[in-house]
Write a structure and sequence with these properties.
The chain is an alpha+beta fold and about 325 residues long. The protein is built from 10 helices and 12 strands. Bound molecules: adenosine-5'-diphosphate and magnesium ion.
Length: about 325
């Protein structure tokens, strides 16, 4: 980086982001000062993107900026919160070009402007490319959506379609031969996920539990099941699949991606039967799909229309830690 740290901050991460009246002091002091409105609780989430782990090394810097915020806004959506402020810890290699910073900052700003999220501070360091964003959102007291709370008999629902980002990743990593339009569609689902903020906020008071799908449907739904201490069935034929997935893959391959691939950032949530009308009024039909049912029997079962069990090959992404439990330093 030929620019000095403070020039980088001044040029790319201060003035041009949305201004909010509830920010008393943003970038430029030792800490930011914000005002939380009466009657609101703060929802706080943080997510890190590591180059080569959370996005392919060749990802366009604009998309990296966009995605770094999108994954955090998705956590806000899953809580039913409205995002307000963010901080950014940016670590990039010392030879990072100014164009990279300009593009990264513009992708980040594009999404920040959509939802009026203020960039109120951060940290800028050199090292392997890593982006951490922490977002704070606002939510009326006692109205947050949680992973716990799902009850037997509740329907299980998801927004949007599943598996597209997984096909996008396969398209990049395995250089699949997809038609140009299809490739653009799935790679854009991977690089620019849509945080389901409108849906999350509309689900307050209707959903009994919610989570965003970052690691894969099965992996993330299992978090709801564990937190709620119940089980569930997913009906394969009801999984919402995009036209691209249906046209480019066998049904079984599409199900594998819909169940096991991450990065879709759709919401998965549960709703009791008596709230189904409220649900369709709140979200509007067409933006969500019922995919299963919460049951008393623990565990998660993926079944087809003839009642046969289907075992997904992947249960979703997990970071591995290679520590040796026998090493005395690890105890
Ligand atoms: P300190 O020395 O107190 O840790 P810094 O010198 O790291 O502060 O940062 C100076 C100011 O710039 C602080 O207000 C900090 O929040 C802000 N800042 C640093 N890096 C970023 C960034 N990448 N994006 C936004 N604000 C940043
Ligand atoms: Mg300081």
């Amino acid at each position: 980086m030929s620019l000095h740290e403070f020039e980088v901050i001044a040029r790319y991460f201060s003035q041009t982001f949305p201004h909010r009246a509830d920010v008393i002091f943003g970038v430029g002091d030792d800490a930011a000062l914000c005002v939380a409105p009466n009657g609101m609780q703060l929802a706080i989430a943080i997510d890190t993107l590591v180059a080569g782990v959370h996005f392919p090394l060749k990802t366009a810097p604009k998309d990296i900026g966009y995605k770094a915020l999108a994954v955090n806004l998705s956590d806000m959506a899953a809580m039913g919160a409205t995002p307000a402020w963010m901080t950014l810890a940016l670590t990039c290699p010392p030879d990072t070009h100014e164009n990279w910073l300009a593009d990264f900052s513009s992708g980040l700003r594009e999404l920040a402007e959509c939802y009026q999220v203020s960039l109120i501070g951060g940290d800028t360091t050199t090292g392997p490319l890593t982006i951490t964003i922490q977002v704070t959102g606002l939510i009326p007291e006692q109205m947050a959506l949680h992973r716990h709370g799902a009850q037997p008999g509740d329907g299980i629902y998801v927004t949007g379609t599943l598996g597209d980002a997984g096909l996008g990743l396969a398209s990049i990593q395995q250089q699949l031969r997809l038609p140009v339009l299809a490739r653009h569609q799935v790679e854009s689902r991977l690089n620019r996920p849509t945080p389901r903020l409108r849906e999350g906020q509309a689900l307050r008071g209707i959903a009994t539990s919610a989570i965003d799908i970052s690691d894969g449907l099965v992996a993330d739904l299992e978090h709801i099941l564990t937190a709620s201490q119940i089980g569930a069935s997913i009906y394969l034929e009801q999984l919402p699949l995009s036209t691209v997935l249906r046209e480019q893959l066998s049904l079984e391959a599409a199900w594998q991606l819909a169940l096991g691939a991450g990065d879709d950032y759709e919401l998965c949530f549960t709703v009791p039967q008596h709230q189904e009308t409220a649900l369709s009024t709140a979200l509007g039909t067409g933006s969500y799909t019922r995919i299963g049912m919460i049951e008393t029997l623990s565990g998660l079962r993926c079944v087809n229309a003839s009642g046969q069990l289907f075992i997904p090959k992947s249960k979703g992404y997990q970071h591995g830690f290679n520590f040796n439990p026998d090493d005395p330093d690890n105890r």
